[in-house]
């Protein structure tokens, strides 16, 4: 069984009868024909289509989700000595980009249901040095921006959504990446909308910010060989833009399938004896970028699943403030307790195979294997 089956995706048929693989090949061939490998017409087309989909004025396509975070922070003027509030339970790029600018990551513990940043703990983490807030929309559903944004607004602090795992999900009818000052996402191959290499994007309706993000992503250049900002080389390749455009043709169908299969797999796990199923906050949808459960004795469960031919992964076993490269560069807002809910989650979470083409037979096989492998009937699905 594949953890994520990109081969099955390529076989899907488009309304015109072509397979997705044929569409991808056609898009790549068009780039090879026109030869504009940097900032070609596919980049402009992708930006327009994704901005319209998300419901914002501007999309800036970039070289990776990490670049999207870094450039967003740079566009907001984050610099040495500033503080940026975020979650400790995420991939390293969330805090790495803050630290690279000389700012201090300030970690706020997670909500135990969604694993996203807990808004009830946010205000006490804000200081005079707080320059931005970076909630992560983990595992496929948005963080609680309905609660986060008013707190940020009271203090005049911009919010950046790390939406690397949530592109295509919604909160009260609004799409992820439209829920904050700047939204960011990733087109890494395993993401809900993935390319075949690195890629990412920033989204905003603020014209000044959009122009700044675009300049920074092009070495701070406002016109040829004239650089008004310190920037980076953060442009997306035309070939990756072309691939993402082709895959966007099946994206809405895949989003629907992700929601349906997520609910189905939850039901099967419950029927197999797992006590709780994935919990969506009212008003949220999820794209289930990871289908993650909690188990006791995770190494033994993983070993048992492997014996049954079921791959698994851990997202994430080490909190950001525990990462050797980040030790001493940030702090927990709860000084004495070190984000206990995030710590507990890091010791228990286990991600199962999940993608839009997971068959009913595969879902049942996963549910039975988890039930057999779990060392306790109290395993909880998140």
Topology record:
Elements: H1 6-10, H2 20-34, H3 41-54, E1 58-62, H4 65-75, E2 83-86, H5 93-100, E3 104-107, E4 130-134, H6 145-154, E5 160-162, E6 170-171, E7 174-175, E8 182-186, E9 200-204, H7 207-217, E10 221-223, E11 226-227, H8 238-248, H9 251-271, E12 291-294, H10 298-307, E13 331-332, H11 340-348, E14 349-352, H12 360-373, E15 380-381
Parallel strand pairs: 2-3, 2-4, 3-13, 5-8
Antiparallel strand pairs: 1-9, 6-7, 8-9, 10-11, 12-14, 12-15
Write a compact overview of the structure shown.
The protein is of the alpha/beta class and 382 residues long. The protein has 2 domains: 6-109 and 116-248, 3-Layer(aba) Sandwich (Aspartate Aminotransferase, domain 2), CATH 3.40.640.10; 251-381, Aspartate Aminotransferase, domain 1, CATH 3.90.1150. The chain has 12 helices and 15 strands.
**Shape from CA axes?**
globular
- In CATH's first tier, which class of the largest domain applies? Alpha Beta
CATH superfamily of the largest domain: Type I PLP-dependent aspartate aminotransferase-like (Major domain)
Low-confidence stretches: 375-382
How many domains is the backbone divided into? 2
Report the CATH topology name of the largest domain. Aspartate Aminotransferase, domain 2
Structure classification: alpha/beta
